[in-house]
Amino acid sequence: MILVVTGTDTGVGKTVVTAALAVALAAAGRRVAVLKPVQAGTEDDLGDDLGDGLGDGLGDGLGDADVVRRLAGVRAAEGIRLPDPMAPVAAAARAGVRLPGLAEHCAHVERLAADHDDVLVEGTGGLLVELDGSGGTVADLAGLTGASTVVVCRSGLGTLNHTALTLEALERRGVAVPGLVVGAWPRSPSEVERDNRARLARLAPLLGAVPAGAGQLPVAEFRRAAPGWFTGLPQAASTSARSSFGGRGP
């Protein structure tokens, strides 16, 4: 199975959700690899590593693949690493380097898929962020690889609109969506957050919620707890995103 992990925005917790999914799939006996096609921003802590905007506390220079490798203990590769925490096209221009094209990313995915049961591809920012200099997006990469896509969303105000927009964009492209994951579920959720969680589940299957600050757990505790954060694991979908989203609004 090839699974793209995208988010409704940057900083929603994609990295820790990716690590947690990798742990849960490995616990089910699957051979798992992770690919971060474009890592933009390694000079400081960007918050997305934890899903709670607090920074990973692991020191400068770490990318998302490093965090996944540490937390999940699985193979985690990068396509290209850029120092500036910007959109890939802008970060590559500042660094004076060429971004790999989507065909190169697809080939990387295929190489990993040849040796693993599951390949998790963590996107950069949101679904329509451009990954190359030709306008190719995370959504396009999902379509080209035949991947299903898990959408990581926030718990708070604005999440219903952002999630519905992301699902609609995937539906229009015919990309299958096994479900949603809340990237940082607070220890003491507000009434708004509890209501949002129920309404998110009406948009698409809610696969689970990762506790806020999960990325700061000791590795052994993270790996022990991660499978329990999901009510179900994504499966390779044979139907389009419409079957999950159905065009329903929030």
Automatic annotation (TrEMBL):
Report the active site residues.
Answer: 36
Annotated residues that bind Mg(2+) are located at: 15, 64, 122
Fetch the Pfam families from UniProt. Answer: AAA_26 (PF13500)
Under catalytic activity, the entry for this protein gives: (7R,8S)-7,8-diammoniononanoate + CO2 + ATP = (4R,5S)-dethiobiotin + ADP + phosphate + 3 H(+)
User: Which GO molecular function annotations are given, in alphabetical order?
Assistant: ATP binding; dethiobiotin synthase activity; magnesium ion binding
**Keywords attached to this entry:** ATP-binding, Biotin biosynthesis, Cytoplasm, Ligase, Magnesium, Metal-binding, Nucleotide-binding
Tell me the first and last residues of the signal peptide: none
Q: Where does ATP bind?
A: 11-16, 64, 122-125
Pathway terms, separated by semicolons:
Cofactor biosynthesis; biotin biosynthesis; biotin from 7,8-diaminononanoate: step 1/2
Q: Where in the cell is it found?
A: Cytoplasm
What EC number is given for this enzyme? 6.3.3.3
Cofactor dependence: Mg(2+)
Extract one GO BP annotation from the record: biotin biosynthetic process
Recorded GO cellular component terms are: cytosol
Family, per entry: Belongs to the dethiobiotin synthetase family.
Per its database record, what is this protein's job? Catalyzes a mechanistically unusual reaction, the ATP-dependent insertion of CO2 between the N7 and N8 nitrogen atoms of 7,8-diaminopelargonic acid (DAPA, also called 7,8-diammoniononanoate) to form a ureido ring.
PANTHER family per the UniProt record, alphabetical: DETHIOBIOTIN SYNTHETASE
Q: How does it assemble?
A: Homodimer.
Name of this chain's protein: ATP-dependent dethiobiotin synthetase BioD
The organism encoding this protein is: Pseudonocardia thermophila
Upper taxonomic classification of the species? Bacteria, Bacillati, Actinomycetota, Actinomycetes, Pseudonocardiales
Gene name of this polypeptide: bioD
